[in-house]
Amino acid sequence: EDKNGEIIKKMIDSGADFKNVIFTEQEFSKLLKSGKRESNTATEVLRMAWDRETLESLSKSAPGISTNNFISVIGHITREELLKSVNSVDKSNGFLNRFIFCHSIRANIIPSPIDFEHLSSKLLSLDKLRCLKAFIDSTSVEEITLNEEAIKWWHTFYTDEACTPEEELSSIKGRTETHVKKLAMIYAVMERTTIVTVEHLEAAKAVIDYSNSSIDFIFKQSNFQDKNDSKIINFIKENGGEVKRSQITHKLFKKNKNSGLINSYRDRMVQNKTINILNDGISEKWILQESEVITF
User: Fold this and answer.
1) What is the mean pLDDT of the chain?
2) Does the pTM exceed 0.85?
3) Sign of the Cα pseudo-torsion (130, 113, 80, 276, in order)
4) What are phi and psi for residue 244, nearest 5 degrees?
5) Given pLDDT bands bounded at 50, 70 and 90, which one contains residue 294?
6) Cα separation of 267 and 260, whole Å?
7) Running DSSP on this structure, what letter comes out for residue 39?
8) Would you list the DSSP string of 180-218?
9) Reduced to 3 states, what is the DSSP secondary structure of residue 233?
10) Distance (Å, rounded) from C-alpha 190 to C-alpha 204?
11) How far, in Å, CA of 129 to CA of 17, rounded?
């Protein structure tokens, strides 16, 4: 404080120039659980990082300020653990709707997979990143805009979303429009342009549509099926309510679905209590039991 009692701010450490960071949390439940502790502010900081460029602590003894930061979080968690780790407050306070959800299943069984680091280095080389950074630096971008067709598309999309009736999971899907616009801007810059087109917006919407479908699968109380599950149900019904796995593989899918996919259909349908499995050590039988489902 000065002699008049006014607080004088003094910079002790200017910090890093580059403040973009990506956190990969293989056990996303740890973040969710730690955020419930009274003294933990991790989820609050992430919410603030989404909303504004400047983060500031309220500590009187050692206040900290971070400006022009960009924070991303990639989290991995199973459906069951996610449901156990979140409560009604998490669903309604805006923390979850800042994330893009992606439900995934194992599509293939690969005993010797390609090294991910090697694969990613081929798909996204450092040279490509340097070129992208050079474009951003050289253009001194202050604003990314939509072209005329994209503006029309956006107005229609935004109006449709705004008029969509509230539903059970609206609070988790509450940032659909923002996610679409942000992704579209990223796609534009990746193509080294500052103009967002309809193609960028439609590509972004496709991603968020899948995210919202994933949210339905994770959080809705009723069961979930995809179109292949429905095909299997109808096939079992047509064959008296009971079929062998080999019939599904050979007759229904004509050997076009590998064992990993067949396993994922079976496991999901068992979890949803759509079918029962009887395995006598020789063959695997799928026995239908009726259940309410969601198909998308």
Assistant:
1) 80
2) no
3) positive
4) -90, 155
5) very low
6) 10
7) T
8) HHHHHHHHHHHTT-SEE-HHHHHHHHHHHHHHHHHHHHH
9) helix
10) 13
11) 18
